[in-house]
Amino acid sequence: MVHVNPAYDRGTAGWGVSSFSSLEDGLAFVADGGTVVLSEGTHRVGAPVWIHRDVTISGQGAGLTVVAFEEGGAPASGFAMAGATFAVTDLALVGTVCGIASWGGRLDITRCELSGFHFGVIALSLFVPHELSLVSSIVHQCDTALLVASRPTARALVTVDSSTLADNGWGVRSAGCAPACLSVTATILAFHEGGALAIPGGVSVLENCCLWESGDIPDGSTLGNMVADPLFAQGSYRLRADSPCIDAAGMSGPDDFTGRSRPVGARADLGAFEGGRAVLVHLSDTHLLAPDGDTLYIGVNTTPRAWDTGILFARIHEALPPSWDVTAFLVTGDIVDLATTQATYTTPVGTVTEPRWERTYGGYLAFKERLAASFPGVPVYETVGNHDYREHPLYPWVWGDMEGIDEGFYSAFSYEPIQVVTPGDDIVLVLLSSGHDVIATKAYQESVLYPYLALHADNAEEILHLLRGGEMPEGLEGYIGGLAYGSGITAAQIVGLDAAIRAHPGKQVILACHHPVVYYQMTVTRNVPSLLDLVRTSDVPFVLSGHIHQPSLLEVSWDTGHTTAFAIGGAAPSSSFGLLCLPLGNAEPCDTPYRSYS
Description:
By secondary structure, this protein is α/β, with parallel strands linked by helices. Strand 34, helix 9 (528-537) and strand 35 form a beta-alpha-beta unit. The protein starts with a strand and ends with a strand.
């Protein structure tokens, strides 16, 4: 193995033996069957570069290592090989004539990007049999992406797998190709002026591919293929999170263009990039057993109530785009229990006289059973709200005492102060349970500061300034709002949240709690300054909550460069819910990540 870095010189260890400053020198000294490892950066190479022995050239990634072919200042042909085994991996090739020309032997191109050539790759098998594989690679902005030419006595076997050929004059062209010489699978061929495939006299296999604006599809090439816009992200060949090419290939596949293992979702994606999408259904404050006509809270109990959960689940099915599958349900509190302390109460289905907790527990189990029937196999995660346990005081639990919680309730609801779950690759949900706690010492913040912020604070900096004890604007002392039950997020839970984020670097950490954090008109989560500081510095993209029965979405751009969306769920009637779409792997974000329906 030899290493090539333009910055190497005579003072570099291994100079002239295993360390070189040019690709040409590295190829001259590498042993037969060896590997030339290219550093990050651009390697400018005189062309053509002839390959006469078995060798592998490997970069650090197509976005990191670039080989630019040039001669006398004018770009020319690139690699040329004959009768050898040549592998090129993890780099980008740029030029104007030809990226790689093979005259027989075996050529493997893996996780590479070729652009700007007249011919991206030429595979010629005139006298010697030839094998070519193009895997998890991108060929774009070439007159012809791949040209195959062979004679019946020297058949070319060409495989294109999980690649993206786009924005070329032609995709794949062949001349004199012997039968069964070309196999294209799980590949996107899009936006070719001449056509995706031109294979006169040859037989090709086209399977599980996506073609779009690339001319006519060859006859007989209909094995699981689709004619659809792949929905590339702007300025990229990555797939948008709503692309039809996501989960459209087989159950597995080769590592993608960036080296990510496939599949990320249920199935591998078409094209060079492997991505995916997690769709979370956000429910909150359904109050399924609330008394008919009870108006104790704004927006609660104004219509007959959601024993008819079928309406809710049917609406969710209708709202889901065709390519979206639900990953999980997230319910941010107040699922079943009532907005009253009566032991006997009236519901749309009659008068209930059973003990409150038993009826609530049974209603919760019925809700989960009906949800499971409508969305089989979809997990349900919930945070505890202030109405989810009214009969037994949660105040001791807020401080860590679990003894006062009934076993029936404990088995039905998630009363752990903090839960960390992973509903999909790259996504971590941190669930903070709120206690039922009548606020006494926080009366000033509850009745004055928080309602003011809901109506008047314009940005995150002002919110943080006021919550940290900054000077209040004149006239604030006259702004009085009502008190409400709530908060119960403890300092210990914030420490746990910090630990959960640190334990999952590089993941999308979504925070969920019953009581809102900012931008609402009732209560707030206790320890908001500390919580917001953690969200601000940890790249948390979404904070989901409920409690106020009024759907709301506030996007806050922090001084750290990321944006957090604070989404508040609505309440019953039974048609209120939100859809959160999160990208997985190399998928681009959805155009509208959070959608509210009421």
